Amino acid sequence: MKTSNNTILITGGSAGIGFQLAKALSADNKVIITGRNEQRLKAAAAKLPNTTAILGDVSDANDTDTLVTAIAKDHKDLNIVINNAGAAHVYNLATEGVDAFTRANEELLTNYLAVIRLNEKLLPILKSQKESAIVNVSSIVTIAPGGRLPTYSASKAALHSYTISLRQALKNTSIKVFEIYPPLVNTDFSATIGGADGIAPSVVAEDFVAGLRDNKYDIRVGKTAELFQYFLSDHDQAVNALSGQE
To answer: What crossing angle do the helices spanning 150-169 and 114-127 adopt, rounded to 10°?
Structure first.
């Protein structure tokens, strides 16, 4: 797929992986970034060429409708959607009083259900383009769930399953469906789970651009590729390795 002259929407585009994706793509494409923090969103857009910021929370139905309306009005040539916005909670399911239900509800809404809603609303625009793509940012935990991220892992597993179904459903359309599987990445988002030891978010962006160019629909970044092979040979050991139980 072409990596230039696209119009690209990136949710959660003001920081971390989303910002690095925008940075890698904005020189040769028109980029639209969304986010909940107005100050951070405007600051991010100001650092990038060819970039428009639209304030909004994709987990909010009204904000999603506002975003889709703005795109239909001002960005009718949209042909790539990158679903990157996410939510995560670090906790132990065995600990009393952690309110796993509330945590899981936020994670499932942001990481899974909001993606389904936004994709569905943008399908008519994407289908009208000669070449288009939906990109879902999942995680290494779709391969082996992390013990400290129990319901986050479940939400990303749901996203992974949905991505496969979406790819099958859209195989006879102009829309290609990609999935990015980052490992631990050094961002503010991952700070509570040792993100300082992770790879740079720019590596994720570089691997994505290469995967997009080569039509590599499953983009397993860094150690995710190694863990996937480990998973194929020994599922239990892969889970233990990711959870630090070896």
So the answer is: 20
